[in-house]
Write a structure and sequence with these properties.
single chain; alpha/beta; three-stranded antiparallel β-sheet; 37% helix
């Protein structure tokens, strides 16, 4: 397989994309809001969310910044993001979008930078768009640990199929310019931009068949069926993964999700 290096793996225009971003939100919004709630977000803040997905965190931020605040949701295809009186939905590419200098109190980017070949440069641009004292929050999966995530299933062959699916998905992401280990080096990348007070937390949980964390994998196999097959996943393996993700006997560990917070120094 040849690498494209310029294609985002998950297309918001795909027929199953709305379900996928909803399941993603159900799976990890609790972690995200727990981190954000501890950052002192105040009325009147100006926030930027990069890659808002279903828009659930955009709406959460808008409720906290109040009528005097502003939340900008920036995405290549923001069709799943609901608007609001204090929400600006902006269709643009974060790699090239014009960003105001020293403007935002908070910038949040979840499951975006790991997919972009220009992730280090994008991180520098985001850091420059923070006001002095502003906060940058970056969350990404670390998928370098993905073998053996499925620990229980009614089908004895499901674990092998799930591992094969994980490998095919990882190869697809890398072929499109992704970095499976980026999440673990975000703190150093933030430090290189001049951000300070850097903190981080890892999040991992167990999912049972039929819940959002399992159904997200099934949704991936629907949205990415053709490219996953090109990376060697068989139709039989895809069907085993889908069945296992819906079966109540299934237990899987999530990927580790690392969330890193950095602050632009006061001037």
């Amino acid at each position: 397989m040849t690498a494209s290096q310029d294609r985002y793996t998950f297309d918001n225009a795909a027929p199953t994309a709305a379900q996928r971003v909803r399941l993603l939100a159900e799976s990890i919004d609790g972690h995200t809001t727990e981190v954000l709630a501890g950052l002192g977000i105040a009325q009147g803040w100006r926030c930027l969310e990069v890659g808002p997905g279903a828009g659930t965190i955009t709406a959460w931020l808008a409720a906290r910044v109040g009528p005097r605040g502003r939340v900008t949701a920036l995405d290549l295809d923001p069709r799943h993001v609901p608007g609001g009186p204090t929400i600006e939905v902006r269709q643009d590419d974060v790699r090239t979008a014009a960003l105001p200098d020293a403007h935002f109190d908070l910038i949040h980017a979840r499951l975006v930078l790991m997919h972009l070949p220009e992730r280090d440069e994008v991180l520098r641009r985001l850091a420059g768009a923070l006001r002095p004292g502003g906060l940058l929050v970056v969350s990404d999966w670390d998928t370098t640990w993905r073998r053996g995530l499925l620990i229980a299933a009614s089908d004895p062959a499901a674990a092998g199929a799930f591992d094969a699916y994980q490998d095919a998905l990882a190869n697809l992401v890398v072929s499109n310019g992704g970095d499976l280990a980026w999440a673990s080096r975000v703190p150093l990348a933030m430090r290189s931009t001049g951000l300070v007070g850097i903190t981080g937390v890892g999040h991992n949980r167990l999912h049972a068949g039929g819940d959002a964390g399992c159904l997200l994998h099934a949704a991936n196999t629907h949205q990415l069926a053709d490219p996953l097959r090109r990376w060697g996943l068989t139709v039989e393996q895809i069907e085993r993964v889908r069945a296992a993700m819906a079966h109540p006997d299934t237990l899987i560990h999530s990927y580790w999700l690392y969330t890193t917070v950095g602050r632009r120094p006061e001037e």
